[in-house]
Amino acid sequence: MADYHSPTVIQPTIPSADMTALERLILGHIFDTEADGDGLYLFAEIGPSDSFELPVPDLRRAIAASADTESTVNAYISERIAAPTDDDTHVEIDLSGMSWEFILQDIVRRSPTLDHVTAISAFTCTRMRPDGFGGMAVVITADAIRGKSTNDIVEDFLGDDAHDALYAGTHVLLRVREHAVKEQIAEAIGADPDLTSINPDAVTESDIRSACLDVVACSDLSEEQGAAEFRAAVAAIRAAERRDQAPG
């Protein structure tokens, strides 16, 4: 049997003052923690946890202390975790429907000192399986969560080589700009309340990139391409004429 692990390191240290009590409680069970000055160093020797039990008194105190601060984890816990009864000593927390990156992003947004957080993960396996090794780097800012795996890097390398060979002598006619798509998302959600119930911030950079690639793949711009190539052909002819007519 092979066991897959994803040891992870979060940098820099998260200032304790920047976390709500509930965020600190939850992050302290997703990750291993060590005190580092006035903050917490977050890491996971085996991998981040998305399921664990919490003592009911600890959870109630953390929720009460964090009630005045809007955050992803507050909303998630209140919407999806059943209120414990007086007979319950522990409550099961299942975070499989929420990414811990969003908790860290909330902290970055509020922090007066953090402008980003990075999460570096290694993918390892107890057996030398070809799919058992690699890694991931994630950069979390107030506005975006961006990640790239070692598989993505390999595909980029191969794609660059193939692109250079395939597209020598070609020129870009149209670019779908991801930052413009992001602006359109906010405008569309703001203009149409029935479009979706999610917040624009829930749409990640990865969502936008994947959607842009899908739209490009499904769009037929052959007529526009042909017209542009014809205009370029005429322009090239005119340029050659001017060169031939130039004196000496």
List keywords for this structure.
248 residues; alpha+beta; 2 domains; eight-stranded antiparallel beta sheet; two-stranded antiparallel sheet; 8 helices; 44% helix; 20% strand
Can you walk me through this structure?
The chain is of the alpha+beta class and 248 residues long. The chain folds into 2 domains: 4-170, no CATH class; 171-248, no CATH class. 44% of the residues lie in helices and 20% in strands. It is built from 8 helices and 10 strands. α1 packs across α2 (56-66).
Secondary-structure element order, N to C: EEEHEEEHHEHEEEHHHH
Shape: elongated
Stretches where pLDDT falls below 50 for ≥5 residues?
none
What share of the residues lie within helices?
40-55%
Number of E-type strands: 10
| N-C termini distance | 81 Å
Average residue pLDDT: 84
Total helical segments: 8
Indicate the structural class.
alpha+beta
Number of domains as seen in the coordinates: 2
Please outline the major beta sheet: 8 strands, antiparallel
- Cα-atom Rg, whole angstroms? 25 Å
Sheet-strand content, in percent, reads 15-25%
